[in-house]
């Protein structure tokens, strides 16, 4: 697609000339595309009233018709595809992409994603749709926080625990999203988030104060990726985080936003707030007395755009000016940055002269992008254990069992902050493509977490004498006006607007409400359980009593136990309404909970030798600020990194029954798998693999793809190896500072072939502080299969107090045929030897001796060492 865009460059030049001849010179300067974005913004800001300036600083910025300014939304997401949109390509979660160690492929993924965003955006506007949240040319991606603790539920959104790997990946994300730096227009505006020192816990992020982060940890761990994205990728947005750093909220921090971001790094573009972060100033952090003072504080610190669900605090900026809390020129400074960003996108110019506006809708989830999603998913697959080379499996086996809670779960593969794909290949479907459905015995076997399953009573309910629930719908959000549809629902409720599906014929996709009514008469006294989840407004009533009510922006599993009496009538009623711009979703079932029975499962599996168990976690359990909790989980984070006990017991039962157990682990974070290394013959870390994740898993399991993924995070043995979750000191955390032996180290990943790494050669053994140096490493494939090895180079400054044990500074993917040897050269730039100097109170390349480690993981036993002297 980019080639087509470049071909249009000569056409664009001709159009510019024609427009100039037709009278651009007679238009107001801000309307003239031939002027720079800075010149246009300077002119336009002087034409705005103070109230209009404030409104342009909202994430939902309404139109200003008198000046021809259109409505604009700053909040869209493109974490691994265009989020909150239908029929798009859904790539693997970023932590899975990081496992590929393939930043060139990451660029291709986000170049494709930005094509789809542009195509979706322009198609919607041309169809008369409103420019709304999540349909914007500003995307709040990438998340380059350091995944310092595996308990953090949002770590799946990051590129792992290492600053260098995160930086390499993040740069390519930005370049893919924004397009060529020398182009007249930006394809999209990317955003580096969440700045800074942010990685959980979710439950305390609005109040948390980090006042003991060392300068070494700040500069060596938490800031490098942001600095690189600002200086090397020229990212157009930086999002400030929720918590406080040294008593100041990040969105009101002079240290972060002025001293570091603008003065030290020279950042000239937009700072946007995380959603609700300005409100936290006075509701949670208590550093401002009210909304007026919070708005003034944020603007003075340098936060240009406020994200707020509604009722923006920035609407009070005129009052703040009147009170003398902030000057109008301070607001002008922010508004100019806002306008420059919009002019850079070309969204105020005719589509005819913006090349990216010509990207056709046919690019969305086209075959090229589908293949790209599959390629990325394959490269993310990380083989952790393979006893007796049980993998790859033979396709000729009579029967294979595929069991586990994630086996046939398509949404699990989408991860979080996701769009909805046209089609998804589940892991069960992927395996079936290799050996046929008739060769598979399938059983869910157990839940992700619960050690009980619900025996559904849906067949025992009636509404108006008919089986099931009676559903009534209105195309208003408050159950008023004309009824637009009714329906009888006879199976457990599972309704969604994802994929442009209506809840019922005639019901709008947004702004609707519905009531679901039925009656249940128990056959005996007992305790039943209501299981439900919803995205939107949900309220459950039984005999007029409200049992649960909430407004939620994602569907999370919830349950309520309820005692019933034999023969008594129970009227069950659900009130549902779609909210904001989130896709509507409603799930409901109820019945009796019964314990999981592994005896029945084992009887079903009699005579079957090989069992593929697909389990782990899902975004129903780990994610952002989630209101539901289970044992070992809290608010989207985890309190225990062990595999949920119900799955652990199931795996042990399978092994005790003599089965060959292949464990496919889906998760966005590290899991303590010590018992699983004994109960499982092979362990494949499959992350959340996107729309083609199931095909990629099957390709690896059956040997059609040789796995090459490497862990971008440390897999600890258990929670006892972790410091306190809210302690942001890096001491003892990640491979860079961990002195204990982990279960699986950062950089670990097996192949179906064997590689040998020979003795490396340094270009020079002695350099000065301004020089770079290259290291050449021979690597051989001594096995029988073609495969990819990922060489890794680490650096350590000898006699450096408190510094990292070693830290990644170079890597390269190497494809080798059997019996092939290549000499691979990796360049170490001068800043590879930059560490925090306490005396200088700054990052610095200090003279001395540096150790250079090289190998195929961070495990000391897998690394070879040489030394370099810097004068």
TrEMBL record:
For this entry, the protein name equals Xylan 1,4-beta-xylosidase
Keyword Signal attached = yes
A Pfam family the protein falls into:
Glyco_hydro_3_C
- EC? 3.2.1.37
Instruction: Kindly give the NCBIfam families that the UniProt entry links to this protein.
Output: xylosidase_Xyl3A
| InterPro entries listed in its UniProt record | BXL, Fn3-like, GH, Glyco_hydro_3_C, Glyco_hydro_3_C_sf, Glyco_hydro_3_N, Glyco_hydro_3_N_sf, Ig-like_fold
Record's keyword annotation contains Metal-binding: no
UniProt keywords, alphabetically: Glycosidase, Hydrolase, Signal
Task: List, in alphabetical order, the Gene Ontology terms for molecular function in this entry.
Answer: xylan 1,4-beta-xylosidase activity
Q: Which part of the chain is the PA14 domain?
A: 464-606
* Gene3D superfamilies tied to this protein: Glycoside hydrolase family 3 C-terminal domain, Glycoside hydrolase, family 3, N-terminal domain, Immunoglobulins
Q: In which family does this protein belong, per the annotation?
A: Belongs to the glycosyl hydrolase 3 family.
User: SUPFAM superfamilies in the record, alphabetically?
Assistant: (Trans)glycosidases (SSF51445), Anthrax protective antigen (SSF56988), Beta-D-glucan exohydrolase, C-terminal domain (SSF52279)
